[in-house]
Amino acid sequence: MVDIQGTAIHGTACPHCGTHNNFHADAAAIAAQCGRCDRRLFEGKAYEVGGDAFLAHSLAGDPPPGKIPLLLVCFGVGFGVTRINADRYAKLYEPNLRVLKINAFEHHEALAGYAVRAVPTGLLFQAGTVVARALGAPIPEGDPFARMLDEHGVKRAVPLRGAPAAEA
Questions:
Q1: Element of type H or E holding 24
Q2: Does residue 30 lie in a domain region?
Q3: Domain holding 125: CATH number?
Q4: Contacts 24+ apart (CB under 8 A), 26-34
Q5: pLDDT tens series, the chain, 168 aa
Q6: Which domain holds residue 57?
Q7: What's the maximum distance between 2 C-alpha atoms anywhere in the chain?
Q8: Is residue 131 included in any domain, yes or no?
Q9: pTM of the model as a whole
Q10: What percent helix, strand, coil does the chain show, rounded to 5?
């Protein structure tokens, strides 16, 4: 969806109140605020959710233009590094991606239909459907979550050190 000036419009749920918000996909998007609670939509961090609350951030029946992709990072007790690293993806990909994290051991019922059998697991949702998954923590030889996001066309807002900036 585009506005009359030709700027793309994207949608996302507010991580604070859950309200659907549309925003222009331009440099100012990172500072977008919720129309209901007036808090920032993007803060460079992954939000921890419980149960099936993550579904509100990626549903097929959302009002146009639909929502940006969602990365759900499934972590477990004793894997605190995964919980911390989830923020890294928010910093790299917002406002082109919503990043949420969920404790897979505490909320295994909500994840049962997604075949999460190990942690860390990253699930990439588009319009309420898992379109890709990645398993494993980042290692010096590569980052499975970043590779999955890049392969599925999620644009980085911030380039990795030494990498060229993403095109708009």
A1: strand 20-24
A2: no
A3: 3.40.30.10
A4: 26/168, 29/95, 30/94, 30/95, 30/157, 32/95
A5: 555 555 788 889 999 999 989 998 888 899 999 999 999 999 999 999 998 888 888 876 666 667 899 999 999 877 666 666 899 999 999 999 999 999 999 999 999 999 999 899 999 999 889 999 999 888 878 899 999 999 999 999 865 544 444 443
A6: 44-151
A7: 50
A8: yes
A9: 0.86
A10: 25, 25, 50
Cα-flanking dihedrals φ and ψ of residue 42, to 5°?
-130, 120
DSSP string, 42-57: --SSPEE--TTGGGGG
Cα separation of 29 and 10, whole Å? Answer: 9
Is 49 inside a domain boundary?
yes
Among residues 123, 84, 128, the alpha carbon closest in space to that of 104 is found at 123
Tokens 């979550």, located at residue: 145
First to last CA, the chain: 16
**What is the tally of structural domains in the chain?**
1
96, part of any domain: yes
